[in-house]
Amino acid sequence: MAVTIDKNKCTGCGECTQQCPLDALKVEDGKAVVDEGACAECGACVDACPASAISL
Ligand code: SF4
Ligand code: SF4
Q1: Which ligand is nearest to the CA of 36?
Q2: CATH number of the domain that residue 17 is part of
Q3: Considering only Cβ atoms within 10 Å of each terminal Cβ, which end of the chain, N or C, has fewer?
């Protein structure tokens, strides 16, 4: 399991990549992508995203 990123909402700001304690997020081609194997579903990125693009 991992978080879901709504690519229509994501602005590529990178805020979530700075908040993930496991480095499971990165921005590729202007959109956040999650390494599903690394995500522990802690929820930190969900709260950090200013565009509300991430959900658990
Ligand atoms: S839920 Fe936690 S572990 Fe998963 S991508 Fe977000 S911040 Fe990282
Ligand atoms: S914080 Fe939200 S808008 Fe910014 S890169 Fe991450 S998912 Fe996209």
Answers
A1: 1
A2: 3.30.70.20
A3: N
Domain coverage including residue 25: 4-55
Q: How many domains does the chain have?
A: 1
Ligand 1, residues at Cβ distance < 6 Å: 3, 19-20, 22, 24-25, 34, 39-45
pLDDT tens digits for the chain (56 residues)?
A: 899 999 999 999 999 999 999 999 999 999 999 999 999 999 999 999 999 999 99
* pTM of the entire predicted model: 0.94
